[in-house]
Specification:
By secondary structure, the protein is mainly α. Helix content is 61%, strand content 0%. The chain has one domain.
Length: 117
């Protein structure tokens, strides 16, 4: 899966929390969100002087980020509720990164069939 396909797939499943998301799909979308944040921050600092566009982009991308995060956890046979561990300072993010770099569970699992990478 390439960058464009991953972003298109995640945005087409804007609020779909069921199913599975492959590692490339998840990490390409993380890169996309990072790049959007950089671009909107630059535009905000040059034009507005306040984080107006950055805030709008963050709100617009929040739901797809949560959805692809839950689907990625499903791909490793974990519940999407594991996303809540992010509220534990530092440790929670480390655990989520560890979960998200794990390989996909081969074959079908309780969250659906394996996605093509």
């Amino acid at each position: 899966m390439d960058f464009q396909t991953a972003v298109r797939t995640v945005l087409s499943k804007y609020a779909t929390f069921n199913g599975r998301a492959s590692r490339p799909e998840f990490w390409w979308f993380v890169l996309f969100v990072f790049l959007v944040n950089i671009v909107t921050s630059i535009v905000d600092s040059v034009i507005f002087g306040t984080p107006l566009l950055n805030s709008i982009a963050a709100l617009g991308l929040l739901l797809p980020q949560l959805a692809v995060g839950a689907r990625r956890l499903h791909d490793t046979d974990r519940s999407g509720w594991w996303l809540l561990i992010a509220f534990i300072p530092l440790i929670g993010w480390i655990v989520l990164i560890y979960f998200n770099v794990q390989p996909s569970q081969q074959g079908d699992n309780r969250f659906g069939p394996q996605q093509a990478a």
